[in-house]
Amino acid sequence: MKKEYRIKKNEAFQEVFQKGSSFANRQLVLYYKKQETSDAHFRIGLSVSKKLGNAVMRNKIKRYLRQAFHELDEQVAPGYDFIVIARQPAKDMAYQELKKSLTHVLWKSHLLKQPNRKNNKEKQ
């Protein structure tokens, strides 16, 4: 993930939390806020609590989420800031399950252009 597509500063996190909207499922909480420049690429910030495990486990979850966003890049609505918070069940999930959960929260928030039908056909 390129540097300009990340949210790292606390002020940026707080702005999304306070002025944005949210949607959640059992595994993830998604906060999102429209950027001032709507044609810009989306930015993501990830938060994984120490309660979920040691540094290895937390970094694994963050890697999975970054990769899922990378694969969904074409489908995610541009011009938004996203904060994704992992919940306790996320630590026991495989990559495909976590990606499906992320797709679910993005779809329910109306921020996904269309679900990835190609992957669904391959599984059947």
Mean pLDDT score, rounded? 88
Cα distance spanning the termini: 31 Å
DSSP summary: helix tally:
4
Main pleated-sheet profile:
4 strands, mixed
- H/E series: HEEEHEHH
Which bin fits the share of residues in helices?
A: 25-40%
Strand content: 15-25%
Strand line-up of the largest beta sheet: 1-2-4-3
What does the radius of gyration come to? 14 Å
Please count the beta strands (DSSP E, at least 2 residues each): 4
Unreliable stretches (pLDDT < 50, length at least 5) are: none
Class per helix and strand makeup = alpha+beta
What best-fitting shape do the alpha-carbon axes yield? globular
Describe this protein's structure.
By secondary structure, this protein is an alpha+beta fold. The protein has helices at residues 10-19, 55-71, 95-108, 117-123, and strands spanning 21-24, 28-34, 43-47, 80-86. Strands 1-2-4-3 form a 4-stranded mixed beta sheet, with helices on both faces. Strand 1 (21-24) and strand 2 form a beta hairpin. The chain is globular and about 35 Å long.
